[in-house]
């Protein structure tokens, strides 16, 4: 970031460029809106915020240590030595960074000192570690940040009621949902630009909504209901919203934030950062903040070493699996939980404390997974004691912490849990060892959560040795798809949790043999699925209708890396992100596999549809619409027709304009050629013209005497 | 349209040139020997031996008697087209790259690369009708642009010289004074190195190809960008059909990356675009490497392409081609 440039520097620069600065009217210079050329604005509002963020140069790295012994001058050096010893263990103290003031009258110390570190992180750590440190019985350190002292000093003695700000009506953040053409928005990031578009599939092109360079420093992310777009900056995260304007709604200070996560109902934002330790032997320090999205208030922060947050407490893994906190209880954002060593800590958002003030103790738990709708989670404990204690999957209800259902599993090597989007079913993929323990095979345990006693059904594939490549539930539905197989062309099977009239039994619908696929993408409305062969399989796409058990289309988006359905299930975006150089960009398809348009962009990083909140229609109403689709669709078909007519009209018009323009150029050029004809002839020594007609076919007869011979002929 | 494969070079092709009558095709490659072929059946007529380095470009005089070639061996040579004998050699201190005869064939422009402290330069030599009068004196030497000059051609009536190069800029120079007259606009012009340039038959407009994955059509007098053709791979070669409103773009990813990706990713296609609508019409596949050279027969009924793979592919269009409608 550029520093604020002083006036002297500007004048010096102007002189070096030969500009007379005194004659310039600075107000006449207009900078394009939104562009600051990397120069920090000194607007009052911005500056204040910048200062709050800028720790390195403020007093953020100074701490004040109070309750030191009061010593006379001859003991001064000894005390200083002790203080230095204690505090240099924590971080690097700046040169002359320790200052212990002395009373000028008594020549005694005043019982406190200032210590300046190189970074605010070190100062923060020192404060945490030594606050309450017992030097001896009567000297217990009280450590504060220097900045805080200043803040505390400013607190007025009398409480004054806070001024209530007058209400300013904000923008309707859901306005984008009321688009006349019922279009969806998406955001892309390519090179330095971040751009939001309408997907105008009728016009076969995207329609720009908002575009900004350097909007984010690492990535962007929509909130789960699509209200906000979050950007990441060095100083923290920010959210933006609206239909077209994308004003900044709130920012959340969190220096060097790396990852963010919204709660499903977008009430809270979790931010994460990890900091290099000052001592290379220490692990990284992790800071996690939870903010209220609307007010920007910090609700709770968690700090600790990276090990504390490593998932499953398995140890040895330095990475933190994100999200650390998993949200439960559906869209109400009531609970969030994280996995610890032998515990699952469940917090409630009412108070931001642990439920019942303690974590749930589960020995050796390695994974857990919330139901997407209900306050229930499934957890998995692996086999222990060499198989003496079986592995176990349990369903636990919150806040009662009751175990609803438990299933013991034997000779298990690994386990993965998949919830159906409405929380009706839970599939547990179980990898088991064969008898010889040399290989594994896979089966599924299927839980029916909404039925009495939660019945469990075991499903095994027909060929037990098949590896499971991918698994996916139909959103809101009762079906799931599995890619399984051992060879490069695996099979894909579809199952239903119902079979015929019996709703309580799993049945197989069909198996597709030998497909080039490694990923499954269900339409968000169900029924349709894309069987995709991404990355290694060059971007094969098969659009499949599970109701009809029929392939609608096969296509290819060469080198595609990502597939994403729009939230309505009408369109699909496939993109090639810049994992490789070639072909970067995205394609938009209709749900039945027709390529609508493609856009190529170099250095393409992200493609994200703007999510929509759940529909407001009741299930009955939805059914009614589906039944009378013909009636409703008439209007849209007519619109489609209009648009296509208009398109071809526009196209014709465009062509006509282009042709006319070209004709103009041609005429101009021809006149030049004509005008210069003589001169050109001169250059060519009078050779007739430029045209091919100069070739004249002439018939020339040439007679040549080859030989003359005289012969005497005797005449009788 | 079944192409005629012409295998006469051992190294990647660099340039292709038809003579004015369209019966001869000259090819230059990184091997040291330019070839001449019958443009009709692809039969090789002969070679021009004498260069000691890659030959970058060539040009043939209007009456098809003389050939000029520019080579990395730091010479540009004049040849007798018919006999293949070397007539004259212009020696430089750095590799010669672009060559072109002026209207009337009494002047030739030759560019040289920056090399060992020499900056790049545009040389104008006079070409004597009588070989005995030929000198290696330059009429004028223009220096200025940084980096390689990849192509230099004559403007209308030999009054100007156009140059393009690695600095992505098109420049117009005054032939008399050597002054810079015009520079292409940074905004509308190319963003990366310009690799190729091809003039229209009447010399009123020209097309340039660039590594920025686009080709642009310019007015030769005003340097206005009239059209932009966007493609998916860097453009190494461009040509304009003299018959129809078509342009053809050739290229592909860098030779360095070829082995690392699928052959389909390479984009070793000659792509046809509608000259006016800027829309892609079709592609001609076949090369195993990037296309480095393209040329249209002056009758517009065939074209040839030269690739990094060392082949020249000569394509005679099917009758369908002449009825394409978009």
UniProtKB/TrEMBL annotation, chain A:
It is found in: Cytoplasm. GO terms for cellular component: eukaryotic 43S preinitiation complex; eukaryotic 48S preinitiation complex; eukaryotic translation initiation factor 3 complex. SMART domains: RRM. Pfam families: eIF2A, RRM_1. Keywords: Cytoplasm, Initiation factor, Protein biosynthesis, RNA-binding. One of its GO terms (biological process) is formation of cytoplasmic translation initiation complex. The keyword RNA-binding applies. Residues 61-148 form the RRM domain. GO terms for molecular function: RNA binding; translation initiation factor activity; translation initiation factor binding. InterPro entries: EIF3B, eIF3B_RRM, Nucleotide-bd_a/b_plait_sf, RBD_domain_sf, RRM_dom, TIF_beta_prop-like, WD40/YVTN_repeat-like_dom_sf. Component of the eukaryotic translation initiation factor 3 (eIF-3) complex. HAMAP family: eIF3b. Belongs to the eIF-3 subunit B family. RNA-binding component of the eukaryotic translation initiation factor 3 (eIF-3) complex, which is involved in protein synthesis of a specialized repertoire of mRNAs and, together with other initiation factors, stimulates binding of mRNA and methionyl-tRNAi to the 40S ribosome. The eIF-3 complex specifically targets and initiates translation of a subset of mRNAs involved in cell proliferation. This is Eukaryotic translation initiation factor 3 subunit B. It comes from Lithospermum erythrorhizon.
Automatic annotation (TrEMBL), chain B:
GO terms for biological process: formation of cytoplasmic translation initiation complex. One of its GO terms (molecular function) is RNA binding. Keywords: Cytoplasm, Initiation factor, Protein biosynthesis, Repeat, WD repeat. One of its GO terms (cellular component) is eukaryotic 48S preinitiation complex. It holds the Pfam family EIF3I. Component of the eukaryotic translation initiation factor 3 (eIF-3) complex, which is involved in protein synthesis of a specialized repertoire of mRNAs and, together with other initiation factors, stimulates binding of mRNA and methionyl-tRNAi to the 40S ribosome. The eIF-3 complex specifically targets and initiates translation of a subset of mRNAs involved in cell proliferation. Component of the eukaryotic translation initiation factor 3 (eIF-3) complex. This is Eukaryotic translation initiation factor 3 subunit I. It comes from Lithospermum erythrorhizon.
């Amino acid at each position: 970031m550029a520093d604020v440039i002083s006036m002297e520097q500007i004048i010096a620069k102007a002189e070096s460029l030969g500009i007379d600065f005194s004659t310039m009217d600075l107000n006449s210079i207009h900078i394009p809106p939104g562009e600051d050329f990397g120069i920090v604005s000194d607007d009052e509002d911005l500056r204040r915020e910048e200062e709050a963020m800028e720790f390195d140069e403020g007093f953020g790295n100074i701490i004040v240590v109070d309750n030191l012994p009061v010593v006379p001058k001859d003991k001064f050096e000894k005390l200083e030595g002790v203080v230095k010893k204690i505090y240099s263990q924590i971080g690097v103290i700046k040169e002359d960074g320790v200052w212990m003031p002395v009373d000028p009258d008594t020549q005694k110390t005043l019982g406190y000192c200032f210590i300046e570190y190189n970074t605010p992180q070190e100062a923060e750590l020192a404060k945490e570690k030594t606050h309450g440190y017992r030097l001896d019985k009567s000297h217990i350190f009280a450590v504060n940040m220097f900045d805080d002292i200043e803040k505390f000093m400013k607190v007025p003695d009398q409480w004054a009621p806070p001024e209530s700000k007058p209400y300013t009506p904000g923008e309707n953040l859901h306005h984008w949902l009321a688009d006349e053409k019922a279009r969806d928005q998406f955001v892309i990031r390519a090179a330095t630009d971040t751009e939001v578009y309408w997907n105008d599939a009728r016009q076969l092109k995207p329609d720009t909504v908002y575009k900004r360079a350097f909007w984010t420093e690492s990535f962007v992310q929509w909130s789960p209901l699509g209200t906000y777009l979050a950007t990441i900056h060095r100083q923290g995260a920010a959210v933006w919203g609206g239909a077209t304007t994308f004003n900044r709604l709130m920012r959340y200070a969190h220096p060097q934030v790396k990852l963010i996560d919204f709660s499903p109902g977008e009430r809270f934002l979790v931010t994460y950062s990890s900091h290099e330790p000052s001592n290379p032997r220490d692990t990284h320090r992790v800071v996690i903040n939870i903010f209220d999205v609307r007010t920007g208030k910090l609700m709770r922060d968690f700090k600790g070493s990276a090990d504390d947050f490593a998932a499953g407490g398995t140890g040895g893994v330095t990475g933190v699996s994100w999200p650390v906190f998993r949200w439960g209880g559906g869209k109400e954002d009531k609970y969030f939980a994280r996995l610890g060593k032998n515990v699952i800590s469940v917090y409630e958002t009412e108070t931001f404390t642990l439920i019942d003030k303690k974590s749930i103790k589960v020995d050796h738990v390695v994974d857990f997974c919330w139901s997407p709708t209900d306050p229930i989670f499934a957890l998995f404990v692996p086999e222990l004691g060499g198989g003496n204690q079986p592995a176990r999957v349990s369903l636990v209800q919150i806040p009662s912490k009751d175990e609803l259902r438990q299933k013991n599993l034997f000779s298990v090597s690994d386990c993965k849990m998949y919830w159906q989007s409405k929380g009706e079913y839970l599939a547990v993929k179980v990898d088991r060892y064969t008898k010889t323990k040399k290989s594994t095979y896979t089966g599924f345990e299927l839980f029916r959560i909404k039925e009495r006693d939660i019945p469990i059904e075991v499903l095994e594939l027909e060929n037990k040795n098949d590896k499971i490549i991918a698994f996916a539930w139909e959103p809101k539905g009762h079906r799931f798809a599995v890619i399984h197989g051992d060879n490069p062309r695996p099979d894909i099977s579809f199952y239903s949790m119902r079979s015929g009239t019996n709703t309580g039994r799993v049945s197989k619908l069909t198996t597709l043999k030998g497909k080039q696929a490694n990923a499954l993408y269900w339409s968000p409305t169900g029924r349709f699925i894309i069987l995709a062969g991404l990355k290694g399989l060059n971007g094969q796409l098969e659009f499949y209708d599970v109701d009809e058990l029929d392939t609608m289309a096969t296509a290819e988006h060469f080198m595609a890396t990502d597939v994403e359905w729009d939230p309505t299930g009408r369109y699909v975006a496939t993109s090639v992100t810049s994992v490789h150089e070639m072909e970067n960009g995205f394609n938009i398809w209709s749900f039945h596999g027709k390529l609508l348009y493609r856009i190529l962009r170099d250095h393409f990083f992200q493609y994200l549809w703007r999510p929509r909140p759940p529909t407001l229609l009741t299930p009955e109403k939805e059914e009614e619409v589906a039944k009378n689709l013909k009636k409703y669709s008439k209007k849209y078909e007519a619109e489609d027709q209009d648009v296509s007519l208009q398109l071809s009209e526009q196209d014709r018009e465009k062509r006509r304009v282009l042709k006319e323009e070209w004709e103009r150029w041609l005429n101009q050029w021809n006149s030049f050629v004509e005008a210069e004809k003589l001169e050109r002839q001169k250059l060519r020594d009078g050779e007739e013209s430029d045209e091919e007609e100069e070739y004249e076919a002439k018939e020339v007869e040439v007679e040549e005497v080859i030989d003359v011979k005289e012969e005497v002929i005797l005449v009788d | 349209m079944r192409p005629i494969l012409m295998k006469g070079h051992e190294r990647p092709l660099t340039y292709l040139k038809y003579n004015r009558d369209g019966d001869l095709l000259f090819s230059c490659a990184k091997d040291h020997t330019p070839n001449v072929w019958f443009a009709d059946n692809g039969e090789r007529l002969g070679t021009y031996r004498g260069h000691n380095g890659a030959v970058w470009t060539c040009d043939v005089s209007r009456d098809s008697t003389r050939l000029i070639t520019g080579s990395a061996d730091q010479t540009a040579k004049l040849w007798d087209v018919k006999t293949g004998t070397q007539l004259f050699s212009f020696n430089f201190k750095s590799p010669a790259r672009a060559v072109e005869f002026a209207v009337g064939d009494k002047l030739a422009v030759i560019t040289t690369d920056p090399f060992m402290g020499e900056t790049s330069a545009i040389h104008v030599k006079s070409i004597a009708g009588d070989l005995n009068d030929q000198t290696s004196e330059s009429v004028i030497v223009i220096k200025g642009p940084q980096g390689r000059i990849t192509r230099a051609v004559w403007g209308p009536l030999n009054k100007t010289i156009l140059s393009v190069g690695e600095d992505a800029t098109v420049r117009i120079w005054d032939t008399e004074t050597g002054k810079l007259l015009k520079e292409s606009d940074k905004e509308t012009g190319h963003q990366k190195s310009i690799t190729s340039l091809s003039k229209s038959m009447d010399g009123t407009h020209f097309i340039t190809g660039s590594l920025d994955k686009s080709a642009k059509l310019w007015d030769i007098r005003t340097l206005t960008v009239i059209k932009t053709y966007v493609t998916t791979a860097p453009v190494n070669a461009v040509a304009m059909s003299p018959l129809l409103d078509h342009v053809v773009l050739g290229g592909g990813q860098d030779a360095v990356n070829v082995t690392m990706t699928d052959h389909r990713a390479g984009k070793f296609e000659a792509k046809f675009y509608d000259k006016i609508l800027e829309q892609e019409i079709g592609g001609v596949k076949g090369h195993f490497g990037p296309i480095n050279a393209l040329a249209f027969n002056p009758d517009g009924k065939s074209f040839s392409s030269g690739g990094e793979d060392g082949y020249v592919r000569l394509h005679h269009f099917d009758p369908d081609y002449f009825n394409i409608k978009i």
